[in-house]
Amino acid sequence: MKTNRPQMLEKSHKHITCENCLSRKDSLFCSMTGGDLEKVDSNKSCSYFKKGQPLFIEGGLPRGVFCINEGKVKIYSRGEEGKEQIIHVATSGEIVGFRAMFSGEPYSVAANTLEESNICFISKDDFLDLVDTNATLRNGILRELSKELADRASFIKNMAQKSVRERLASALLILDDIYGEDFINLSREDLANFVGTATETLIRLLKDFKDDGFVTTHVRKIEVLDKEGLIRLAGV
Amino acid sequence: MKTNRPQMLEKSHKHITCENCLSRKDSLFCSMTGGDLEKVDSNKSCSYFKKGQPLFIEGGLPRGVFCINEGKVKIYSRGEEGKEQIIHVATSGEIVGFRAMFSGEPYSVAANTLEESNICFISKDDFLDLVDTNATLRNGILRELSKELADRASFIKNMAQKSVRERLASALLILDDIYGEDFINLSREDLANFVGTATETLIRLLKDFKDDGFVTTHVRKIEVLDKEGLIRLAGV
DNA sequence: GCAAAAAAATGACCTAAATCATACTTCCTA
DNA sequence: TAGGAAGTATGATTTAGGTCATTTTTTTGC
Q: What is the full DSSP assignment across A70-91?
C-alpha cells in the first residue's frame, strides 16, 4: 500500500556517509569500492534543500555534480514565455548535472527540488578525476548517457505523435515508477509541464481519468489505481 | 552560391583510407594519430549505400558503428501507426550508432540513408577497444553525448511549446546548416516527420514560407533565402 | 487562526492543425 | 518512352486542445 507520510528530513547539514547511503545501491556510484568511496566521502558536502530550491539554473556554469540522497528534483528548461518543460524527474540515488561536466558548456537545463531533499555535492575536479580513473564508473556513465538519449528520442516521438490524453497516461506510469512507494506528488502545473500541455487541459483530463477509475487524488497527490488501464490508454 | 550538383559517388566498395578521409576533420576521430588510425583503417570496411538503404533497424542488435564518409543518414523511430519521427539527420564525418554500443541494448532508433552515401563500418570490439585506450576519443564521445542530450531537451521543449510554423522555421535552419553548400534535399514526408506534423500541413506551410520569400524550392529541393527571417519566425 | 496568496477547478470560446478526398506532377523502370 | 507508382499539392471539414475569464479550494505567512 502506498504511503502518504509527511516526510520530515533531517534539516541539518550533517554529513551523510556514502558508506551508509541507502540510495547508493540504485546509483552510478554503486560499484565504487573503498578508496574511491572514501575520496568522494571526504570531499563531498551534504545539504538539506527546502522544496522548490534550485540546484542550478539554465545558462549557469557547472561546478560539480549533485547526488540525491533523499528527495525529488525536476530537470527542466524554460520556453519563451517562461513556460517550463520538465524533461525528467530525478529521485534518490540519481546523479544530477553530470552532462554539463563533459560538454564544457553552461547548463542547458535547470534543476529544482520538488520536495525537501538531502543532496550531496561533488566538485567538478573530484568527479572528473573519478571518471578518469574508475573504468567501471565511466562505463556506467556511458551507459546512462546512452539510455537517456534513447529515452529522449522516445519522448520526442511521443510529443510529436501522441495525444495529450495518451501522453498523460504515459507520464503517470513513468511518475508512478519514480515515486515508487509514495503517491505522485507534483503540482498540476508541474504535471502539465511534464506532459507538455496547458494546466487547464491537464486538470480536465485528470478528472476524466479519475471518473474512469484509473487514478484517484488526495488533494494534490495522485494515486495510480489501474496501471494496466493506463498502459492501454498510453498505447505503448 | 548553393549547388544543385547531381552527386555521383564511387559505387565500388573500394577502401577509403582514414588518413585521406576529408570528413575526418569534422569527426570524433579527428584527434586520432598514427597507431590508432591505422588500426581503424585496417579493420574497417567501406561500403557504398544507395538512397534509402538501412544501416540498422529499431530493435536490431548493434555490431559496430558507422562512420559517414559522404552522404546523409536519417535517424528515426517509428510510432504506432508506422509514422516516422526523425530525430536527427547525420552528415559527413559523423559517427552513427555508437550510443547502442554502450547501453548494451538493442537499437532504440533506426538509420537509413537519405541519399547515396559512402559509409565505413567499424566493429563493436574495435570501437570499444579504441574508446577504452584512447582518452581523447573517449572525452570526445562524452562531450558529444552530452551535447546531443542538450539538443534533445530543446527538441522536446520545441515540440511541446512551439507551433508547427515555428518548428518548421527552426527545422529549416538546422537542415540548412547540415546541408551546408547543398540545397536541403528531403522528401516533404521526411521533412514533415522531422518537424513532427502531417505532410499536408507541412506542404501548406512551406508554400506560405515560399510566398513570404523565406525559401524557394527547386522541385523537391529547398533553398533557404532569408535566414534572419527564419530565425525571427522560429522565435529562438 | 485569519487574511492573502497560490493552486485547482470549471465554463465558454476559438483556432491551429489533423484528417479525408481528390487532383496534379515527377520520377522510375520495363 | 509510355505507363504506373510515388510524391506533391489543394480543398473541405472536423476537432483536440489552447486561451481567457471566473470561481472555489488549499496553502502559507503573520
A: ESEEEEEEE-TTS-EEEEEEEE
Average pLDDT along chain A: 91
Crossing angle of the two packed helices A199-211 and A188-195, in degrees rounded to 10: 100
Distance CA A49, CA A55 (A): 9
CA-to-CA distance for A97 and A62, rounded, in angstroms? Answer: 8
Q: Which residue bears the cell 533497424?
A: B57
B156: left (phi over 0), alpha (psi -120 to 50) or beta: alpha
Give B191-207 pLDDT, tens digit per residue.
Answer: 999 999 999 999 999 99
Distance B175 CA to D11 C1' (A): 30
CB contact under 8 A, B160 and A103: no
B87 interaction partners in chain A (CB closer than 8 Å): 153, 156-157
Distance separating alpha carbons of residues B233 and B210, to the nearest angstrom: 13
Residue A159 to residue B196, Cβ atoms within 8 A: yes
B131 contact partners, CB below 8 Å, separation of at least 6: B137, B138, B141
Which pLDDT tens digit goes with each residue over A153-184?
A: 999 999 999 999 999 999 999 999 999 999 99
B218 to chain A, minimum CA–CA distance in Å?
28
**Do A87 and A76 form a contact (C-beta atoms < 8 A)?**
yes
Q: Which three cell numbers stand for residue A153?
A: 528520442
Residue B215's identity, in one-letter code, is V
pLDDT 10s digit of each residue in chain B, 236 long? Answer: 565 544 556 655 567 887 777 777 778 887 787 788 888 888 899 999 999 999 999 999 999 999 999 999 999 999 988 999 999 999 999 999 999 999 989 999 999 999 999 999 999 999 999 998 898 999 999 999 999 999 999 999 999 999 999 999 999 999 999 999 999 999 999 999 999 999 999 999 999 999 999 999 999 999 999 999 999 999 86
Strand partners, B91: B72
pLDDT digits (tens, 9 = 90+) for B219-229: 999 999 999 99
Distance CA A164, CA A201 (A): 9
The residues on B that touch A, with CB distances below 8 Å, are 77, 79-80, 83, 85, 87, 99-105, 108-109, 132, 135, 138-139, 141-143, 145-150, 152-157, 159-162, 196-197, 235
Enter the C-alpha cell of residue A235. Answer: 498505447
